[in-house]
Design goal:
Length: 498
């Protein structure tokens, strides 16, 4: 049966969004190929001039910087996974992918992809093709594995949803390189498509060549889960559509392209107008004589001539810097807007964004970071939901349906992202004690301090500390230490006497 018509299916939103996805991915990845498609010729520019300018083009990848900064902040918060998971889930967390990455590493990569595309899809699969439950013993003795992999939206061609919003089926493009054997493999990309349904899966490949090319099912198997094992991960937790979602860099990538084009224009100005040009009366310069050659050397290979009857002597023409200054001002404003739009302006300088040195004050950073806290919280909720769905699918693959429940959380991400550091918490404790703060306030501050001082406490030790905190300050007034830590406001230590 020829399935060519099946693999040509596309979701109604696919064709409209494909070019946007490809641009976002290319802008994040960067590289020299990016310039050929995204640096534009300006008005009346010659082909040779444009080719030369294109070869000199450069950029700082602000798009990648934004994605990586937000990813760093999201995973700076503590991710709490179940202390005593089932053997299958524990094994999956240790080796979540075919190449052996942990679940923490996999989710960090998934978050980067989600920020780039807006919505990605995570497939949970098993190396067993018969649909049977896979145990930990199977994984250790037979090399079988439950694993996950990322499908970008460019490869998620079409899908169907039921009335409850659950996936009924999905069509995925899965290209693979023919490189099994260095002597017999062609090294070419083989086009493959996989269809998932709630009870079956099919792997479709091209067969034949030219006009005799057909698409047929190469492999198929049973899906014993009863659900399509695909989880959606959104960059911003925004479910406006069942198929797409806004990316973190939706606007940043286009602003970044504008910066690259303005920098290229500035480079053209520098190349053409950096050096002053010699202007000399035409009457004193005749082509072909020795003086003409000397004047060309003095004039940096270019000489302007004019009628010298008025008695004016030779002089140098300085380039007009107004155009370059205008471009620099526009570049600075756009770069500032790029980082300001996602609340990480504190990562750039106030005066010169091009240097990339983090010299803004701690107070300014705190205020800037408060704005991005809601963004990080939204991303953490999206990651938490996706990882819990992944964990449920792993348990279903392992035949541990009894462990699956709708209200149980296997993973919890940070709900809020505090900007204060450990030394800031000590300073707050000092000041609360100095003003004789209520005992309840002191206890809460001590909990915050303990969380930052010992972020990975075992459960029994945390319970013991919490038990002591309940009676903190009841028997006697909290006392300040003999000497405090250096003040965070100046570089000079200030000691507080007992």
């Amino acid at each position: 049966m020829d399935l060519t018509g099946v693999i040509k299916r596309r979701h109604p939103e696919y064709e409209d969004t494909l070019a946007h996805w490809e641009f976002l991915e290319a802008t994040y990845n960067g590289g020299r190929k990016w310039f050929a498609k995204n640096i534009f010729a300006y008005h009346k520019e010659g082909k040779k001039e444009f080719k030369d300018r294109l070869s000199r083009a450069y950029r700082f990848n602000h798009t990648r910087e934004i994605v990586n900064l937000v990813n760093k902040y999201v995973f700076r918060g503590e991710v709490k996974r179940q202390d005593d998971p089932t053997p299958a889930l524990g094994e999956f967390w240790k080796r979540a992918t075919r190449d052996g990455r942990t679940i923490q590493q996999f989710m960090r990569q998934a978050d980067v992809k989600a920020s780039t595309f807006g919505r990605i899809w995570i497939v949970v699969d098993s190396s067993l093709e018969d649909g049977e439950a896979i145990s930990v013993a199977d994984q250790k003795t037979g090399g079988s594995q439950i694993y996950a992999y990322i499908v970008p939206p460019t490869h998620m061609l079409d899908m169907g949803f039921g009335e409850d919003g659950e996936l009924l089926w999905a069509l995925i493009y899965e290209p693979v390189r023919d490189d099994d054997d260095p002597f017999t493999s062609s090294g070419c990309i083989k086009k493959r498509w996989r269809i998932w349904t709630r009870d079956k899966w099919y792997l479709i490949c091209e067969k034949g060549s030219g006009t005799s090319m057909v698409c047929e099912v190469e492999k198929e198997g049973t899906n014993s889960l009863g659900v399509v094992p695909i989880v959606a991960l959104d960059a911003l937790g925004n479910h406006e559509s069942q198929y797409t979602s806004p990316a973190l860099i939706n606007d940043v990538a286009y602003l970044d392209r504008a910066v690259a084009n303005y920098l290229s224009n500035l480079d053209a100005i520098i190349q053409d107008q950096t050096f002053s040009q010699l202007a000399i009366p035409a009457q004193n310069l005749m082509p072909g004589d020795d003086d003409y050659k000397k004047m060309l050397e003095m004039g940096t290979k270019r000489v302007f001539v004019y009628d010298g009857e008025g008695g004016n002597g030779p002089f140098y023409l300085s380039p007009d810097v107004k155009q370059a200054n205008l471009i620099l001002q526009v570049i600075g404003k756009i770069i500032n807007e790029i980082y300001h739009s996602v609340g990480v302006a504190g990562e750039r300088t106030k005066e010169d964004n091009s240097k990339g040195i983090d010299n803004s004050s701690g107070v300014a950073k705190a205020y800037d970071f408060e704005r991005v806290n809601s963004l990080l919280s939204a991303k953490s909720r999206s990651l938490e939901q996706a990882e819990n769905e992944i964990a449920r699918l792993v348990l279903l693959y392992a035949g541990e349906e009894k462990e699956v429940s709708d209200d149980f959380k296997y993973v919890t991400y940070a709900e809020s992202y505090d900007v204060r550091g450990l030394m800031d918490e000590f300073s707050v404790c000092e000041r609360l004690a100095l003003i004789d703060a209520p005992k309840t306030v002191m206890r809460q501050q001590m909990r915050t301090l303990v969380d930052k001082l010992f972020p990975h406490l075992k459960k029994d030790l945390r319970e013991a500390i919490e038990s002591e905190l309940k009676t903190y300050g009841e028997t006697e007034e909290p006392r300040l230490p003999t000497a405090s830590f250096p003040s965070v406001e100046t570089n000079n230590p200030k000691w507080v006497a007992q």
